[in-house]
Amino acid sequence: MRDWVGLALRSVLKSGTRSPSFAFSSLPQHGGNVGGFVSNGSELNLPLIDGEVCLGACNAVLVSRNGRQKGLLVCTTWRLTFVSETGVDEDIQFSHDIPLLTILLLSCVNTYPVSSQFFLNITTKDFRQKQFEISSLPFVELIRNRFQSQPVVIYHNPKPEGVSEALHCDKQILEDFSRIGVLHGNPIATNSNGNGEPDIRWRISQANLNHQLCHSYSQHIAVPQAVDDDTLKVVAEYRSRGRIPILCWLHPVTRVAVCRSAQPLTGLAGRTSEPDLKLLNAISATSGQPLTVVDARSQLAALGNKLLGKGFQIGSGDIKVCFQDIPNIHAARTAFLALHELVASGKPPESVISTLAWFQYMRLILLGARKVVETVTQQKGCVLVHCSDGWDRTSQLCALSLLMMDRSYRTIDGFEVLIRKEWISAGHKFKSRCDHFGDRSQPAHEFSPIFLQFIDCVWQLMMQNPTQFQFNDHLLVYLLDALYSCQFSDFLAENDQERVKKGLRHFPSVWKQINAEKDLYVSHAYIPTDDVLVCDMSALQFWADYYLRHEKC
After folding, report:
1. Model-level pTM?
2. In Å, how far are 21, 88, 94, 122 from 83, measured between CA atoms?
3. How many CB atoms sit inside 10 A of residue 123's CB?
4. Which residues are catalytic?
5. From CA 29, how far away is CA 552, in angstroms rounded?
6. DSSP label at 213?
7. What is the pLDDT of residues 125-184, one digit of tens each?
8. Does pLDDT of 10 surpass 50?
9. Rounded to whole angstroms, what are the CA distances from 482 to 60, 172, 294, 400, 535?
10. Which stretches within 436-527 are classed as H helix?
């Protein structure tokens, strides 16, 4: 099957190429190193992205199930790449290009105790297992130093693009609020709900301008009109990380709200907050029904947080609490590594899908999203979603439930808005969760495939509702490639404030590249309707086109 995602990524490489071709030639032996080594690879004529620098190369043998291939292993400021002396087609060559920050684990061992031969073993976050036999110790040290202490981010275009790209995300979020009927600025503004009338019960607050209320939220947050900004400041002291309840979405007909937050800081004493209750009551008052709090954690985990001075919502006549039992980031990481081992073993994962923790956790995530959907569409009650800090499982549940209820988010443009609004601007810790800049001797404590879980859940919905998505699964794979390769600015920071301070919002977004090649990602089966998506939890599939795409390379 043709790797359209690889083709799309290669078009990025080609557009920034400085050298037209790369002709293979083995390196001479010198310096006492059997395999040869060059410390300056400029003479290799390797095609490079703008800003990428070749650091060195050595003769190598790629060892795989398909046998042994001789070639050159090249290290640049951005990637490792292997070029076979016999040549390979472009799809296989794509698999041999390994961005340094895609590497999950790297080890180098002697083939024999007194041998000058080394096995370089590479495990990547995108399910590649590579083993190279090399005999150049300087090259081993080059890779080790580059990998462990000198990560470099290379963008497709490393030059800032000015304020237009920086403002684009804010503009999209405000336009989406306008689309669902939230007022911004002047109450006579053209913002309207699905019936063409503005919903005066919600407003865009100014409380988080310059991130003064919560550094991990967007500067543009929507809250009930009945709660003023001074009250929001008090509520922030009662919510973990200052992540107060804010609006995600309004139903176009019933005007029922989906909101998100972090856990309340109740502590062992069961502390309450009148301003916090005022905000929750203002949310539920917009529907006239009790507020349902969908807590992504198990009740036991929530009790554990309470012992640490945090806690969970106390149920009452006006508030119902539903725990979803979704495991935390550490359990997700363990499930990811187990799936990785299974893929590496060559055993068919489809045969053990029901026993894998990865799929058990996905079922719980999708069940949690379904709980939100059923509460909004059937019970017509408002929902507040949170986990511990409100930036991992909360992002999964909010984004999936909105995707299931609102067909706008199932278009290419709408999916971009959804990811910007519920992931990037809502404070998902991409830098930590992807382990972009951590200690690479082992998977970092904060590393966890939360966004991958979400994308896999989207793929499950796509497989079960094939006519309801404007985009195909190639878009999902491309996003995951961008997530780990660090070619674009979208997934590099912890939150919006860090993005602003480091100037990342001025650099190109992955969506600019996607929109430039939109035809690659359009589904020809798309027949849009307003139907709410369904998901049969017993029919989850193994996503072979992603997890196994590098197996034959």
Report:
1. 0.89
2. 12, 8, 10, 16
3. 19
4. 387
5. 31
6. S
7. 999 999 999 888 888 888 878 776 655 555 445 555 554 555 677 889 999 999 999 976
8. no
9. 28, 20, 31, 20, 27
10. 450-464, 473-485, 496-501, 510-516
